[in-house]
Amino acid sequence: MAAITLTINNELIGARQGQTILDVARERGIDIPTLCHLEGLEEVGGCRLCLVELQGSPRPVPACVTKAAEGMEITTHSDKLVEYRKMLVELLLAERTHTCSICVQNGNCELQTLAAKLGIDHVRFDYLHQQLPMDASRERFALDHNRCVLCLRCVRVCDAVEGAHTWDVRGRGSTSRIVADLDRPWGGSTSCTDCGKCVQLCPTGALFRKGATVGEMIKERGFLNRILERRRLAAQRRSA
Amino acid sequence: MAENPAVPPVLNADPRLKVVDRAMKRLRYQPDALIEVLHTAQEAFGYLSRELLAYVASQLKLPESQVFGVATFYHSFTLRPKGEHSCIVCTGTACYVKGAGEIVTRLEQAVGVRAGQTTADGKLSLGTARCLGNCSLAPMLTIDDVVYGPETPDSAVEKLRSLVEVTDELG
Amino acid sequence: MSRIRLATAWLGGCSGCHMSFLDLGEQLVALSGSIEMVYGPLVDAKQVPDDVDVALIEGAVANMENLELLQEMRHKSKLLISFGDCAITGNVTSLRNFFSVDDLLTAVYQAGPGSIPRSDEDGAVLPELLPRVLPLHQVVEVDAFIPGCPPEPERILAAITAIMEGRPVQLNEDQRTFG
Amino acid sequence: MNWVELVELAESVVARQQVCRLRLLVCCGTPCMAAGAEAVVVALKEKLAELGDPADLELVSTGCQGPCSRGPLLTVQRPGQPELIWQKTTPELALAIVEAALQQEPLPEQDRLPEDWPFFTRQTRLVLANSGRIDPESLEQYIGLGGYDSLAQVLIDMAPDEVCSGVVRSGLRGRGGGGYPTGLKWQLVHKENGPRKFVVANGDEGDPGAYMDRSLMESDPHRILEGMAIAGYAVGAEQGYIYVRGEYPLAAQRLRNAIKDAEKAGLLGSRVLDSSFSFRIDIRIGAGAFVCGEETALLASIMGKRGQPRIRPPYPAEAGLWDCPTLINNVETFGNIPSIFKIGPEAFSAIGHGKSRGTKVFALCGEVVNNGLIEVPMGISLREIVFDIGGGLANGAAFKAAQTGGPSGGCISAGQLDTPVDYENLQALGSIMGSGGLIVMGQQSCMVDVARFFMEFCLDESCGKCVPCRTGTVEIYRLLSRICNGSATNRDLQHLEQLCRMMKDTSLCGLGAAAPNPVLSTLRWFRHEYEAHVEERRCPAGVCSMHELPVHLLGEQLLQRIAASRSDGEGF
């Protein structure tokens, strides 16, 4: 693969053609925060946390989808970016009702960790306190809309990896909400296979295993790349 | 020929379904045709019921949640039955500048439902639109797709009098 | 050096943050040389003194009484700290924001055995509820935040140490998680 | 049909019209219809029938003639005489005009618009050249005014890359709002390889207070088809789509008919004008989502999906519909194309100002005397538009602001009235050209409330994909509402600005990035109004209710009350 050189935070860095800025930065141990991104899933670019400044671009660009190119000059942690990321996570914390103290994911939550990492010790915006339902109709799992950040990991993994496409999004804008099938209770979903992939990938306590109590849920994400790798190998064998 | 097993019992033998079937056939059951099909289905049935959406999903071989996502993304689609008549007040910029807000408030009081709702007797759906493109008639409204404007709160109430019971007291 | 005059207050919260403060245990003895507790649920003072150095406020602003005490504390304190998740985020206290005050009172009282107790002029019977429970910083200027439900004693100690050393109160990453 | 037949047809139409003693053009645009144009048409039809429908008397139901607030409009053409226009035409007036014209008597002066009326004389009509002058349902009339001649010319005389470079030389930029050079876009798609390419016309005009595209589609549908066909030839596409806003059923109907007629005449379909070029156009109907005006969202919608924008690159020019190279332009942009090849790219580029060439269609609305649809050369000042063409504000009221660009645009204050209107200048003023909505506001408009109005719109129309737009619009709307109800503090004002800046920089698509513009531009030019709301709890325009108190004041009032009761010895 062709090699390219670019500058990240004033440091000259070699990269391979086709890598994203995020890949290159992470290889170098530069910590760009992400939320909707998850290796193995198609990118949506919705959380905007991985925005970086690119010399010559009037606005910051998302590192998760922008391909590294020869001669790029990138800044990953300017004051402005740090402030923007803080605001974005504050907006997420204000949008739904996350109340960490009473969450099964407390202590193991990506959103909680992100907030602390970004230096958020309070939220300057109004908490919206939308009264959203909890769907505990499925035998093994439950969905609490109050804790959803609409990262769409569940939608993507269910469609692309499990192939069930049980989840999608209803409505739009601030009324967007995850739905199963025709907005039926999850318990009545005929397309869901109970595989639990969505639950494991959910960054917050929106999707959780029943029976877990506050602070108990630890999610296991490693399966995703294992499955994808095995599928790739199987496909290779078939074509050989 | 055996009946299509995908047709839910409530829809079975509903002649309006033929219109939807024809549209899907014309569009060769392409998943891309979803929005076109939903337009046709809504025109035929007045609204998109869950049964209808499930039927369309099965015919176009689309996941139900995806069909539901599309049907709820666009404001033209409605999942609830609409009133016999419809009154839509334009709240675009020109109408807003010229007082559309007062007309909406007054009509809500007069017919006793909020914009976006249908009266209890099912006679009238009151709605607003984000600009109907008749800005020179601002503030304007449509009743059963006929354009009226410029309107005042009083003249708007008068226009609804023949369609639905209106209250004259101001709230 | 004169001791730091510390006041605490307990607004709309469960007092867990104060309990956690007490969990400092032996450390409190060590701190007593440099800190003087001048007001709060833990000491026997009837009035907020006029010259408080540091105020630790637990709980969210849920009613007029909370609002009054918070504003008095703000007026009389050099440094005001939101103490715990309720003060910072509204936390469990703010879960009533899902409902309107009227609906809430009806559900809690009228749907139960009794009638709704109504506030009198001065709020002496039942403090008048604010339409929404608010975190402190939406009402007054807040100088620092100690998150946690409750904040572990270590966090409290870190904050107090910073104050004693004249540094700004800024907890490190693993000490500023909510929950 | 081939070129020779096309030219012959055009000549015969012109010849027929020239021998007409009297041509009556009744505007049947929606505003004129609402004002009673249909009764005028019926009365005139009956009159002509009474006269035995002579071949030298012609009645035409046209699309929009322009000064919409003065309808129904009647234009009268007689050979060798200046064209005359009447406003607020009644059937009686129309009949009196016909009587007088047939008797060779002076025509009634009542409600006749002056011949030198600046509303018309200050305009330069290229895109709207045919609007209001032809029956939109008549292919013949379009051809009579030189329609499809540009298409014939490029098919016969020019190679596709020459067509692209012609558009580049014209200096045309996207009329949907972005202002991207159209010719460059065409060249990009032209250069792409691919077995299939597409041309898409964006007719999803969603800006509140704008109806240029609707009017164009309803008044002169063939112009758009011709523009698209030229584009198809230039970029190498054989299939086009017009995405029409669902709220515009008449526009869709007219376009459908036009496509059918053009196909029948061999001007669309396979082997256009007997050349080797084939081009088909299909209509797609929108379903009520403003965000579908964004090109990637529009493409998703054409493919039957939720109309959510996606990250660019890849741009539609590389991977658009079904991942094929796709050219997407606004319908007004396509409307310019036939004019460019009719008058020549150089002549087109001679019109305009700075980097903005040609003309722009505006929907001039709000508190201005002459509401309507106008087309002006780029570089004209806002003052000329508002006061010369628009006739100033109703009842001589004072001008306060002009809003351009809808929810993505901004408000321009009286101090900027003399700025020449072009893409760069409007942007420098914190607004945008946008699709061409231009709303004039007087002193009774509160600029904070205006900003709130637009933010409510964006909140409603946000697709929800990215965090800053989905949640930022809600929080900004709450802050603005608080400013309007009297409960805001200076800190809220500070948060408002922070959020707006962040949203502008971080939103995924243009809708989110531009959504803060109405707030930022009003903060810039009308900051004193915000401050009056926050610091003095006063709405200078008297629009906002200001009925609430900031929480800290609520507490202070209480403290005072308590202090008073204590000093009364009542205790607490």
Structure in words:
The complex is a heterotetramer of chains A (240), B (171), C (179) and D (572). With 171 residues, chain B is of the alpha+beta class. Chain B has two domains: 16-73, Arc Repressor Mutant, subunit A (Orthogonal Bundle), CATH 1.10.10; 85-160, Glutaredoxin, CATH 3.40.30.10. Chain B has helices at 16-26, 34-45, 50-60, 64-73, 93-97, 100-111, 153-160, and strands at 85-90, 124-129, 141-143, 146-148. In chain B, strands 2-1-3-4 form a four-stranded mixed beta sheet, covered by helices on one side. In chain B, a hairpin with a 2-residue loop joins strand 3 (141-143) and strand 4. Chain B is elongated, with a radius of gyration of 19 Å. Chain C has 179 residues and is an alpha/beta fold. Chain C is globular, with a radius of gyration of 17 Å. Chain C starts with a strand and ends in a 15-residue tail after the last helix. The mean pLDDT of chain C is 92. Chain D folds into four domains: 17-114, Glutaredoxin; 146-349, Rossmann fold; 353-445, Ubiquitin-like (UB roll) (Roll); 448-535, de novo design (two linked rop proteins), CATH 1.20.1440. In chain D, strand 7, helix 12 and strand 8 form a beta-alpha-beta unit. The B-D interface holds B 30-36, 38-39, 69-70, 73-77, 91-94, 96-98, 129-138, 140, 147-149 and D 30-31, 33-35, 68-69, 205-211, 214-215, 246-248, 284-290, 301-308, 363, 365-367, 371-372, 403, 406, 437, 439, 441, 445, 453-454, 457, 460-461, 463.
Distinctive features:
heterotetramer, A: 240 residues, alpha+beta, Ubiquitin-like (UB roll), Alpha-Beta Plaits, 2 domains, five-stranded mixed sheet, three-stranded antiparallel sheet, globular, D: 572 residues, Glutaredoxin, Rossmann fold, 24 helices
Dominant shape of chain C: globular
Strand content of chain A: 15-25%
Count of structural domains of chain A: 2
Q: Output the CATH topology of chain C.
A: Rossmann fold
Quick overview of this protein structure:
With 179 residues, chain C is α/β, with parallel strands linked by helices.
SSE topology:
The complex is a heterotetramer of chains A (240), B (171), C (179) and D (572).
Chain A: E1 3-8, E2 11-16, H1 21-27, E3 51-54, E4 61-62, E5 73-75, H2 79-95, H3 110-117, E6 134-135, E7 141-144, H4 153-162, E8 167-170, E9 177-180, H5 197-201, E10 207-209, H6 223-239
Parallel strand pairs in A: 1-5
Antiparallel strand pairs in A: 1-2, 3-4, 3-5, 6-7, 7-10, 8-9
Chain B: H1 16-26, H2 34-45, H3 50-60, H4 64-73, E1 85-90, H5 93-97, H6 100-111, E2 124-129, E3 141-143, E4 146-148, H7 153-160
Parallel strand pairs in B: 1-2
Antiparallel strand pairs in B: 1-3, 3-4
Helix pairs in contact in B: 1-2, 2-3, 3-4, 6-7
Chain C: E1 4-10, H1 16-22, H2 26-31, E2 35-39, E3 52-58, E4 61-63, H3 64-76, E5 77-83, H4 85-89, H5 101-110, E6 129-134, E7 144-146, H6 153-164
